[in-house]
Amino acid sequence: MQAVTNTKNANVFAIRNLIEKQMDFAAWTSWIAPLDFQISGNVLVLTAQNQFSADYISGVYGAMLKDVAAQFALDVKLVVRGVVLNAPIANDNNVQSYAPATDTTSAPVAFDAFIASDENAFALSAAKKVASSAVSFSPLFIYGPAGCGKTLLADCIKSESKNVVMMTGAGFVSEFARNLQKRTIFAFKDFCRNCDTFILDDVQSLSGKHATMDEFLQLVMDLRNMGKNVVLTSTVAPNNLTGFDRRAQSLLASGLVVDMAAPNANVKRTMLLRAGVKSDIADAIAKRIVGDGHMISGVVNKIKTYKELMGADVTLGVAEHLLADTLEKFKTPIAMVKMMCEKLGVSYDAICGAGRAKSLVLARQIIMAVLKKSTRLSLAEIGNYVGNRDHATVMYALRQIEKLQSSDLMLTAQIEELIAACR
């Protein structure tokens, strides 16, 4: 009897080791290691803490567990502590059905709705290629800051493609958990795979959801192996996704990764014009809208609502009043000088004073050069803002900076950064 018990214990130990070798560390520690392993007759009995764990393990790792157990001439039975499941790990897809919890249909969006800057032209071309179903890459991974147009581009792909499944990252997590609970997980899997193009918006929402992420990565691999298109959007590049292991990051980066930039002033202007904002107003406020595409939508809505409620056109004065919390205030020359003093680590009083220390003189000359390039001030006016220097002093400063820039790339970069901050 003791010999039989020892043999069973040895087999349990060997089975655990074999399973662990076939899984990544995170999945093993999250799902399989907590199970209680026992051998009863010719059955390997695995005891889970709750029904959720049992359903997930059955759906994701069932086939692998059966294969390992078969090597020891054993069947597998998964049980929940206190509740015995009547059958070994198995599934009959024919008795399951799936329907999304919410209606995900939306109005079609044509690619013409997406206003592409030069920085986003490549992303737009890649999206059109996916919509034409003529790609040799999958997944297409689009990343960029909030409001740069990732979701709009994904909606365009959805509208221009056939047989598409599109979800948000949060929606995928919710549906995965809901169908595990309802024991319709296999129908949900079939739903996600029964498409020509699968789109997941905001993939970073899967961070830390280990069970959902394992299923999602398997979905991506299955779709790619079937020649289907996969489109993913994120706020960061694959290798910067937190909560994703290297295996996940490398898979997501294995197709085509393209980055998107926030709308520039020209894109903002075009968006305003398309929304019916008058040309002169669009020209005046486009460069002063502080924010992304979402902010522009808010600006457009505010202008449209004003016209509807007040029954009057929006003049530039009205627009500046309405958007006082949104528009960037014009920078005065004195504000520019004080901002540059702070960035250069010198005091405003010292810049305007008579000090001749080498570092102070260089900072003063840099400020003069930046004012020259970022404003329409005359040389005399520039001199007035840095301690009433005369025209000749400003001319000398500009020549000195030009000479230093020809051999000092770091100085050039610093000046360009200050110019950008002044505009």
Ends apart, CA distance between termini: 86 Å
Give the uncertain stretches in residue-range form: 84-94
- Approximately what portion of the residues adopt beta-strand conformation? 5-15%
User: What is the count of β-strands?
Assistant: 9
Arithmetic mean of pLDDT: 85
Could you name the CATH class of the largest domain?
Alpha Beta
The CATH architecture of the largest domain is: 3-Layer(aba) Sandwich
**Radius of gyration computed on alpha carbons:** 31 Å
- Shape type: elongated
Find the CATH superfamily of the largest domain. P-loop containing nucleotide triphosphate hydrolases
The CATH topology of the largest domain turns out to be Rossmann fold
Can you characterise this structure?
With 423 residues, the protein is α/β, with parallel strands linked by helices. The protein has four domains: 2-90, 2-Layer Sandwich (GMP Synthetase, Chain A, domain 3), CATH 3.30.300; 129-259, P-loop containing nucleotide triphosphate hydrolases (Rossmann fold, 3-Layer(aba) Sandwich), CATH 3.40.50.300; 265-322, Orthogonal Bundle (Helicase, Ruva Protein, domain 3); 333-422, DnaA protein, C-terminal DNA-binding domain (Chromosomal Replication Initiator Protein Dnaa, Chain: A, Orthogonal Bundle). The protein has 19 helices and nine strands. It has helices spanning 2-21, 25-32, 51-70, 121-131, 150-160, 169-182, 185-193, 210-225, 246-252, 265-274, 279-286, 293-310, 316-322, 333-344, 348-352, 358-374, 379-385, 391-405, 409-422; strands at residues 36-40, 43-48, 75-80, 83-84, 140-143, 164-168, 197-201, 229-234, 256-259. Strands 6-7-8-5-9 form a five-stranded parallel sheet, with helices on both faces. The protein has a four-stranded mixed sheet with strand order 1-2-3-4. The chain is elongated and about 100 Å long.
